[in-house]
Structure formats: structure tokens, C-alpha cells
Amino acid sequence: MNKKILVLTVVVVLLIGAAIPAFAAGPNFSPAIYADGVAWGTKGNADLPAPTDNNVQSFDGLFKFLNGVEGQLPVAEAAPGNPNYNGGRWIEYNVTWNVTPELVTSYAQLHELVEAGDVTIIGETGNYFQCPLLPVK
User: Fold this and answer.
1) Distances (CA, A) of 48 to 18, 27, 52, 107, 129
2) pTM for the complete prediction?
């Protein structure tokens, strides 16, 4: 009888231990992404298949700086409250500075920097995922 209790206890402990990473991937209310001039938190990260011609419009760009300033977060095309926000489905792009970096907090600012030749969007990284934005707390 004691062996059954011991085995059951070990199984329960293992199941709880396996569930902890799922909870750890829960909401992150710390700054993780800039969008529309605001720092946003995130929730989870589910990989998605590459967009097709039929659904590419339901993704937003997420721009990751390879050589940005300290504290630079990825910059999203849009955020909640912006009519162009697609709910947190992302196509990730790499961005590199051609001049001395500065902090970028919005897609509009990024677009101006691209037009000026100050940054280059290298291209898609091949990462497509879902990660809704949450207010920072």
C-alpha cells in the first residue's frame, strides 16, 4: 500500500512540475514590445505556419533590431486600439542601423528612418507566431 502512495505522489509531483512551464509562458506584463510609442507586455508564443496569399493581411510586422541601443525592444506595426492591429499575429523582420542608433518606439518612426536610409530592414526571419500585446503593469 505504501508503494502505491509513493508512486502516486511521484506521479503527481511530476505532473505539477510539467505544468509549471505552461504557467511560466503566461502573461508577461513587463515591457517586451514597442508599438505606437508605447511599451507593451505579451502573452505566450504560439508558432504559426508561414502566411499565404490568402491570409498575409492578417499578420503584422514585428521588427527586431540587431544593433539597436540598450533597452531597444522589438517594434510592432500596430497595437491594440490601432485599427490596423491584427490581434498579435506576427511576421518577424530583422533591422539593422546604418548610422548611430537611437531608441525606436513606433512603426511610424521606423518607417521615417527607413526612408532616410538610417536603418535597413534586412528581411523576414522566417518566424511567424501569435503573441497578443498586453498593457504593461
Assistant:
1) 23, 19, 11, 23, 5
2) 0.79
